[in-house]
Amino acid sequence: MYYIGIDLGGTNIAAGIVDEEGKLVRKGSVPTRAEREADEVIKDMASLCRNLLDEEGLTLSDVAYAGIATPGIADHDTGVVVYANNLRFSNYPLAAKLKEFLGIEKVYIENDANAAAKGEAACGAAKGYKNSVMITLGTGLGGGIIINGEVYSGFNYAGAELGHVVIEVDGLQCTCGRRGCWEAYSSATGLINMTKAKLGETNDTIMHDMVKADGKVSGRTAFDAMRKGDKAGQEVVDKYIYYLAMGIVNMINIFQPEVFVIGGGICNEKNYLTDPLMKIIDKEQYSRDSSKRTQIRIAELGNDAGIIGAAMLGK
Amino acid sequence: MYYIGIDLGGTNIAAGIVDEEGKLVRKGSVPTRAEREADEVIKDMASLCRNLLDEEGLTLSDVAYAGIATPGIADHDTGVVVYANNLRFSNYPLAAKLKEFLGIEKVYIENDANAAAKGEAACGAAKGYKNSVMITLGTGLGGGIIINGEVYSGFNYAGAELGHVVIEVDGLQCTCGRRGCWEAYSSATGLINMTKAKLGETNDTIMHDMVKADGKVSGRTAFDAMRKGDKAGQEVVDKYIYYLAMGIVNMINIFQPEVFVIGGGICNEKNYLTDPLMKIIDKEQYSRDSSKRTQIRIAELGNDAGIIGAAMLGK
Questions:
Q1: Residues 6+ positions from A47 with CB-CB distance below 8 Å
Q2: What is the mean pLDDT of residues B215-232?
Q3: Residue A85's pLDDT is what?
Q4: d(CA B251, CA B132)
């Protein structure tokens, strides 16, 4: 038996066919063109699924169900997207629409960050563990909570907004309206802003030349400069990792999950990120003297976490 | 059928007999004398339970089980207290010991803050709801998380340390070793410290005279001064409530529970606490535009929350 997983993004609809072991056997994508009527988007989603099945030599009878990872607040009990800003979804019956347009009997939906956490829990870095928490460090800081193998998102499906936990009262302005949210410091955007601030403070850094060559400040600028022995780059990285650690320890003290998973492009820094991070976490966490401590792991599924997580929603 | 609930504190062992409806029909207490061998403490606990049953005209055959709320890390699966600083418990088989000394077949154990949350969820402010979060504002800031009606405390039973979530990076020193923990601002101790800081800043406040009359700064000093029109008292209360709200909104953004319960002596301030608190929470929370928002409620069980929660652990 196979499962269809769909990751509905603001730019692209990505979909894949996943086997019993959670392996992605085929995937593809089409542009979302999010400005359209929602029904038109979902009709393209259904076509994409049909094409993938054809290419793999499968039919709907080989598929147990489809799962959709969607932005916004997804009521996984009714299959209705309560609200998604980018996609003109407002109380939109997403599951029912895909059932209709694809002709499939069972469709599950979940918020995209939650689905990624489910993917890592079912087939990735947190495989085999009952409780895990995942963050994705991208433009924002997305969060997902898995308790007893299932996504936890609160009674209104709007929970797990781990990026919108204030770690510095009256701190940096966040897009959510609050000040001092973890996201404002520890997202890739937060790192870029820290790098820009340092560039404004000092001329004594090779980062100015790097930015000229690259044409922009990126999440890699400070890490690359640090590796070349640049003091200012090191200071940016140290500060970034310190704030990231503060937020992760917060989550450990709350959840004490078996595994805490970190995803997003910054994970490509590997040990340059995780070694100093672990030093702070080991020192700060409430249960630092316990023999049972949360494992910190880098996400394993990369950009496929949403597809695979969606495909695992019914398992 | 009846249930025995026991709240094991550093100073007293309080116990009660609770009926099917969660009503406390009889309670009593004896000194803990925590410096003794753990077995001696539990023998006294068993005697207390026997006496309560006698006084109520009941025998052990009328009792389904006993539950114990204990300080420290309580492994509710094995009945072993992994660690409790005050009570000389280190991998102490608490449930097994009470079974032996009382001659009862079933004993459940749980951390005391978690048990209080269970009590409020089963019989108090969060009754009838699947998911709730409780904080108790006392010397520290205790937390308890109820998910699907059950205590959630992570894979090592050490979670729900909501007081040890940093809300101000590099902020006030906390007893846990971190800086800027929510507990350092929002516990009763935090309020007293804020009041003392204000007294050090200004002579233009009636709080100096109040403290002279009372002999000490208490959690009521600033609230009482505020009600008498004192500007410095108002400033302390405003600041205290602001930090408290920041932490509560953090928890709402993470958990989106049906109910968030606030316990502890500061709740006696009633609307002077909750009205300004709600204004900030309504403005700050991520789901402020949603029709489904977390209800903020004052705890209903007072000091009996631990006993009643312990008595409900098996239900």
A1: A30
A2: 98
A3: 77
A4: 10
Partner-chain contact B293 A254, CB within 8 Å? no
State if pTM tops 0.90.
Answer: yes
* pLDDT at residue B117 greater than cutoff 90: yes
**With contact defined as beta carbons under 8 Å apart, do A182 and B250 qualify?**
no
For residue A155, give the nearest of B167, B169, B257 by CB distance: B257
CA-nearest residue of chain A to B281? A178
Residue A61: what pLDDT?
Answer: 97
Residues in chain A: 315
Closest CA to B285 of B238, B245, B239, B240: B245
Which tokens is A138 given?
A: 């991208």
- Calculate how close chain A gets to B66, using CA atoms only, in Å: 26
- The pLDDT, as a whole number, for residue A83 is 87
Q: Cα separation of B36 and B96, whole Å? A: 19
Distance CA B274, CA B23 (A): 27
Concatenating the DSSP letter of every residue in A98-130 gives HIIIII-S-EEEEEHHHHHHHHHHHHSTTTT-S
Q: What digits encode the pLDDT tens for the residues A56-99?
A: 999 999 999 999 999 999 999 999 999 887 788 899 999 999 99
pLDDT value at position B85? 77
State residue B161's pLDDT score: 96
* Contact flag A161-B286 (C-beta cutoff 8 Å): yes
What is this model's ipTM?
0.96
| Cβ–Cβ gap B255/A159 under 8 Å | yes
Q: Quick count: other Cβ atoms within 10 Å of Cβ A216?
A: 8
Are B166 and A167 within 8 A, CB to CB?
yes
Mutate which of B155, B240, B283 to test chain A, going by most A C-beta atoms within 10 A? B155
Question: B83 to chain A: which residues are within 8 Å by CB?
Answer: 290
Helix (H) or strand (E) holding A194: helix A188-201
Q: Do B169 and A168 touch (CB under 8 A)?
A: yes
DSSP states along A277-308: HHHHHHHH-TTTT-SS-PEEEE-SSGGGHHHH
pLDDT score for B289: 79
* Tens digit of each residue's pLDDT (9 = 90 or more) over B70-114: 999 999 999 999 988 778 889 999 999 999 999 999 999 999 999
User: To probe the interface with B, which of A161, A176, A258, A281 has the most B CB atoms within 10 Å?
Assistant: A161
Is residue A124 very low, low, confident or very high in pLDDT (cuts 50, 70, 90)?
Answer: very high
Residue A169 tokens read as 């009262």
CB atoms within 10 A of CB A275: 10
Is A259 in a helix, a strand, or coil?
Answer: strand
